[in-house]
Amino acid sequence: MRGYSVIKKRSDFLAANRGKRYATPGFVLLVKDRQDDQPDIRLGITITKKVGNAVVRNRMRRRFRALAQEMLAEKGKQGADHILIGRDGGIERDFAALRADMAKALEKLCA
């Protein structure tokens, strides 16, 4: 089981853009409290075509989902939207380094 629900509406992505952000070499994490009374954690992933072709973007998306499944339930902020924006260096970055970056970003933004 995932431990989060998926954001699909553009308006939710735009609303999260006004939240806190933390940039790493592989991704940018945005966290925005929704200010509603629902305690669920939501995740959105976005990767532009500048990063690479469809194969590269899908691979990066799979890596981000694995990170989120592993870490968001424990370290994510309840009642908040979390947006992962893929960066150019994210696909070559070692998964252990991405995991460390994600832990640091969640610690800083969700504390």
SSE pattern, N- to C-terminal: EHEEEHEH
Neighbour order of strands in the largest sheet: 1-4-5-3-2
Radius of gyration: 13 Å
| CATH-scheme architecture | 2-Layer Sandwich
Number of strands: 5
Strand content of the residues, in percent?
15-25%
Helix amount: 40-55%
Can you identify the CATH class? Alpha Beta
Q: What would the principal axes of the Cα set say about the shape?
A: globular
Quaternary structure classification: single chain
Identify low-pLDDT runs.
none
The overall pLDDT average reads 92
Helix count equals 3
Count of domains: 1
- Category from helices, strands and their pairing: alpha/beta
EC number: 3.1.26.5
Family: Belongs to the RnpA family.
Enzyme class: hydrolase
InterPro entries: Ribosomal_Su5_D2-typ_SF (IPR020568), Ribsml_uS5_D2-typ_fold_subgr (IPR014721), RNase_P (IPR000100)
Task: For the structure shown, list the relevant keywords.
alpha/beta, Ribosomal Protein S5, domain 2, 5-stranded mixed beta sheet, 3 helices, EC 3.1.26.5, Ribsml_uS5_D2-typ_fold_subgr, 3'-tRNA processing endoribonuclease activity, ribonuclease P activity, nuclease
